[in-house]
Amino acid sequence: MHTSVQKWSAEFIGTLWLTLGGCGSAVLAAAFPEIGIGLVGVSLAFGLTVVTGAYALGPISGGHFNPAVSVGLAMGGRFAWAELPGYVIAQVLGAVVGGGILYVIATGKAGADLGGFATNGFGAHSPGGYDLSAAVLTEVVMTALFLVVILGTTAQRAAAGFAGLAIGLCLTLIHLISIPVTNTSVNPARSTGVAVFGPDIAMNQLWLFWVAPIVGAIIGAVIYKSLLANRADD
To answer: Considering Cα of 149, then 154, then 157, then 161, what sign does the dihedral take?
Structure first.
């Protein structure tokens, strides 16, 4: 049995890695001259952070790395509500430290232009100019389906050993769909970690990227638990 400190440490490191790896690919490599990785590369980078983090740290903490996922797992009966505050604090701190590391790296050259710094937004701050309603719907639906995948692949009846891969690929697909709309959050910690160092508009719009993913996670957990789960899942 792992201690609370070990679990919090795993969530801190995993969320730091997700923020640094995913957002770092967007800030440093997406449009790098001649060999930029683009939208597909950034989407894959986010998925890879989850895959690697899940297999390395999942056996310790469950590998949430996302407050919305923690809420959804608690709603789905897979995680104790009493553990939620510690996980969320560790996740947010990890994301902010990851964002800070990325900020130091990104500003380490003359004339550095951070742009949006991989922050999330809607309206004028949406990559594709999508409005608030489109952003809300995108974040709620994507997070809900993310939770369905997480709960399904981690159920007792699911194929053993493949959950981390499936969850990472799901996050990749989510980014491929929704980067143009909100720059893809589905993770309040990831959004917070870069918003702290990004433009003012990112902090002003951050509320949406807490509310919508958490609402979506709850909806996804309710859908799975009421329509798809059976006793063998717990």
So the answer is: positive
